[in-house]
């Protein structure tokens, strides 16, 4: 993996990083030895920043909740011995005061905290006057406004060294991923705040070692600015998130195999062929919009008919038929069932919205 030194955060005047930035280290700080032995090995890789959770926000009680304050000194030992910068999670002002006292270099706000504006404001207030990188994870649920809200609270208080972390979103039921990536959300965040660096945490998206490579590569292909990857000297015996942690050798291998692509290509032949393919896409998208408009016009006519004949909007049999029929057709054409379902649901919902309007109008 090639990386280069860049000014990652255009908002900031104080920090420059490598891109892709690599943050690695255990899910939780467990002991001085575990921290130091992991950090020593990470020092031999492309890791720039050492992570470890000291206070662990766990969904269920009786899980390992972190060792707390003693780990701050272990962090200092990692700084002293390896020269790596260190980062940990804070969730309230007590945590902030402790990390400041121990010269921890930077902090991240966890997914469970980001969704709580009171907690965010408390952290913002207790960090007043401190200039350190602040990494903000996305909230558990796929609500872009909550994520934006936390970022804005820091920004409005004068913080300019803010980096977003995409760690996936909770989804009920058994899924391939522990947290669904829903890449469209970080992509939308980047559209709204182009100068905000965003890194990806493939470990919490994956929930499983075997998926980390694939997710990391997708993140780099989407031009993410870096990765945060949970790495433990002995993952199988880790006290939290055993299944998703890599050991330092596995991390090194993963980093070596990642391909970092250029955002734009100066080679004129590639640029031309890209331009041609994009013009094809533009034409197809225009057609898609026309088709959708025609379809919604038909849904409106059907709505008028239903209204005239006092028929309910939702026709479960018809919806079931559409779903099964289009899924079959989509799969034959090589489209993923996940995509076809999402698309059909969105179209169906819009048809229902249109027909509800028809029912409620005086026409
Ligand atoms: C973590 O990074 O160890 C962690 C608890 O992450 P999240 O807040 O994304 O669940
Ligand atoms: Mn973890």
| Shape estimate | globular
Question: Which CATH architecture of the largest domain is right?
Answer: Alpha-Beta Barrel
Number of strands: 10
- Estimate nothing, just give the exact number of structural domains: 2
Please tell me how large the radius of gyration is. 24 Å
Bound molecules: phosphoenolpyruvate, manganese (II) ion
Strand residue content: 5-15%
Helix content: 40-55%
CATH class of the largest domain: Alpha Beta
CATH superfamily of the largest domain: Aldolase class I
What would a concise description of this structure say?
The protein is built from 13 helices and 10 strands. It is α/β, with parallel strands linked by helices and 363 residues long.
Structural features, described:
With 363 residues, the protein is α/β, with parallel strands linked by helices. It has 2 domains: 21-257, TIM Barrel (Alpha-Beta Barrel), CATH 3.20.20; 268-360, Chorismate mutase (Chorismate Mutase Domain, subunit A, Up-down Bundle). Helices cover 49% and strands 11% of the residues. It has helices spanning 32-43, 70-82, 93-101, 111-114, 117-126, 144-156, 184-192, 202-206, 212-221, 248-257, 268-308, 316-332, 337-360; strands spanning 4-6, 17-19, 21-25, 49-51, 85-89, 106-109, 134-137, 162-166, 198-200, 226-230. The protein has an 8-stranded parallel barrel with strand order 3-4-5-6-7-8-9-10, surrounded by 4 helices. The protein has a two-stranded antiparallel sheet with strand order 1-2. Residues 10-14 have low confidence and may be disordered. It binds phosphoenolpyruvate (PEP) and manganese (II) ion. Manganese (II) ion (MN) binds at residues 27, 230, 240-241.
């Amino acid at each position: 993996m090639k990386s280069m030194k860049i000014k990652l955060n255009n908002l900031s005047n104080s920090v420059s990083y490598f891109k892709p930035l690599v943050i690695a280290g255990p899910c939780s700080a467990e002991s001085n030895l575990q921290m130091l032995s992991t950090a020593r090995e990470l020092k031999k890789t492309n890791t720039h920043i050492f992570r470890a959770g000291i206070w662990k926000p766990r969904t269920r009680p009786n899980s390992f909740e972190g060792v707390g304050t003693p780990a701050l000194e272990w962090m200092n030992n990692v700084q002293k011995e390896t020269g790596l910068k260190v980062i940990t999670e804070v969730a309230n002002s007590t945590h902030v005061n402790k990390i400041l006292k121990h010269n921890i270099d930077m902090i991240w706000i966890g997914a469970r905290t980001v969704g709580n504006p009171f907690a965010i404001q408390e952290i913002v207030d207790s960090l007043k006057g401190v200039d350190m990188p602040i990494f903000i994870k996305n909230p558990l649920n796929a609500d872009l406004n909550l994520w934006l809200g936390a970022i804005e609270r820091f920004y409005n208080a004068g913080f300019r060294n803010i980096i977003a972390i995409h760690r996936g979103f909770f989804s009920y039921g058994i899924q391939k991923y522990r947290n669904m990536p829903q890449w469209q959300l970080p992509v939308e965040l980047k559209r709204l705040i182009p100068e905000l660096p965003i890194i990806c945490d493939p470990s919490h998206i994956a929930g499983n070692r075997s998926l980390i490579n694939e997710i990391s590569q997708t993140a780099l292909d989407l031009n993410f600015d870096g990765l945060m990857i949970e790495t433990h000297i002995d993952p199988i015996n880790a006290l939290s998130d055993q299944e998703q942690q890599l050991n330092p050798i596995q991390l090194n291998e993963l980093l070596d195999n990642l391909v970092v692509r250029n955002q734009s290509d100066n080679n004129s032949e590639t640029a031309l062929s890209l331009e041609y393919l994009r013009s094809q896409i533009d034409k197809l998208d225009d057609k898609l919009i026309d088709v959708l408009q025609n379809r919604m016009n038909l849904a409106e006519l059907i709505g008028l008919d239903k209204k005239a004949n006092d028929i309910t909007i939702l026709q479960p049999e018809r919806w079931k038929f559409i779903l099964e029929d289009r899924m079959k057709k989509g799969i034959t054409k090589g489209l993923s069932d996940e995509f076809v379902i999402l698309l059909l649901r969105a179209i169906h919902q819009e048809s229902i919205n249109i027909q509800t309007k028809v029912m409620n109008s005086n026409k």
